[in-house]
Automatic annotation (TrEMBL):
This is Glycerol-3-phosphate acyltransferase. GO terms for molecular function: acyl-phosphate glycerol-3-phosphate acyltransferase activity. It comes from Mucilaginibacter yixingensis. Pathway: Lipid metabolism; phospholipid metabolism. The chain crosses the membrane at residues 6-25, 59-81, 93-113, 125-147, 153-170, 177-193.
Length: 217
């Protein structure tokens, strides 16, 4: 049975995900709307591309925190509404909260429903649901990024790593978590379609990890 508490938490999760970190930070400190440059997305990847790591790192960390915080709102709900902390019902509601936050990031009410691709927010959600799988994804992301300097490629491979991790490495038996892993793969492929096209054509932008970014826009 859906309670007022459950609905309120979902609304709060969406509002949390809707915080347009890249847009607000870019406008406040650089006088730039990152959606007008680069890929046109309001996310960490485009912030790295347009404004450099000094702006990209805070955006990425805050976007991760958005997903983590929204997913953990489940701990503040009455257990009678969603079940015990270790129950499948509790995990399912965590998934619902996290997905709602990701949708908020993709379609933020505070930024004209023009958001980012949700990878960092997804990462925060995964951290809250399965820490070990999330850490595995982070390690893979960093390794691929250091080797290729493609944030998009690193995000795509890290996303698929989550599904592999929960299915084969950690052998999670909660069906909804496996289905969620599949959905992550589909979502990442859909939201990174243009990036994939540029990667195949060799036109995808690389991030400069070790030199200071000079903003010319």
């Amino acid at each position: 049975m859906i309670s007022v508490y459950s609905v309120s938490a979902l609304i709060l999760a969406y509002l949390c995900g809707s915080i347009p970190t890249a847009v607000w930070l870019g406008q406040a400190f650089y006088g730039i709307d990152v959606r007008e440059y680069g890929s046109g997305n309001a996310g960490a990847t485009n912030t790295f591309r347009v404004l450099g790591k000094k702006a990209g790192i805070p955006v990425m960390l805050i976007d991760i925190l958005k997903g983590f915080t929204a997913t953990n709102l489940a701990f503040f709900l009455p257990l009678s509404a969603i079940g015990s902390v270790h129950s499948v019902g509790f995990t399912n509601y965590q998934l619902a909260l996290g997905i709602t936050a990701v949708m908020g990031h993709l379609f933020p009410i505070f930024a004209g429903f023009r958001g980012g691709k949700g990878v960092a927010t997804l990462c925060g959600m995964v951290l809250a649901i399965h820490l070990q799988a999330a850490l595995l994804c982070v390690v893979v992301f960093i390794i691929v990024l250091l080797i290729t300097r493609y944030v998009s490629l690193s995000s795509i491979i890290a996303g698929f790593t989550y599904l592999i991790g929960v299915t084969f490495v950690f052998q999670v038996h909660v069906r909804s978590v496996i289905i969620y892993g599949m959905c992550i793969c589909v979502l990442i492929l859909v939201t990174h379609q243009k990036n994939i096209e540029r990667l195949l054509k060799g036109k995808e932008s690389k991030v400069n990890l070790f030199k200071k970014k000079t903003t010319t826009v």
